[in-house]
Amino acid sequence: MINKDYRISANEIYRTRDWLELTQEKFAQKLGVSISTVNRWENAVCRPEGLSLVALNSELDKMVRHKGRVSNQVMAAIKKGTLIKKDNCENCNSTKNVIAHHNDYSKPLDVIWLCDKCHIALHKSLRNGTHKSDTIGKERNITWR
Ligand SMILES: [Zn+2]
Ligand SMILES: [Zn+2]
User: All domains of the chain, ordered by start, with CATH?
Assistant: First the structure.
């Protein structure tokens, strides 16, 4: 999915760190670099190289793969007519980058439509244990076909 020449942008670095829900300090520790290095990357002062670039790409790849896996399953269901795509985020009503989040990958039609921002926020709350995944959607009486 990501080739060797792939160059990660400042924004992607920030989004990856945000997705992992790490502070610049923790993120720097994870990658074995200094905080100022992470800071410089995110401000596009310099670009990651060598081992840091490899490590960053692998984290970015995991994030992209999660999203990719969701959309492939959902696309198939939409094609079959068993799922209807929603254009608005079910949390904030935004129409920007609305994707399907799976509560459970074994139930491909049990999805919630969220914008990129809310999707990341949801994953954060899931990781924090402040949200039980099986109650998402049901709380708001959303019914899935
Ligand atoms: Zn939203
Ligand atoms: Zn998700």
Answer: 1-81 (1.10.260.40), 83-145 (no CATH)
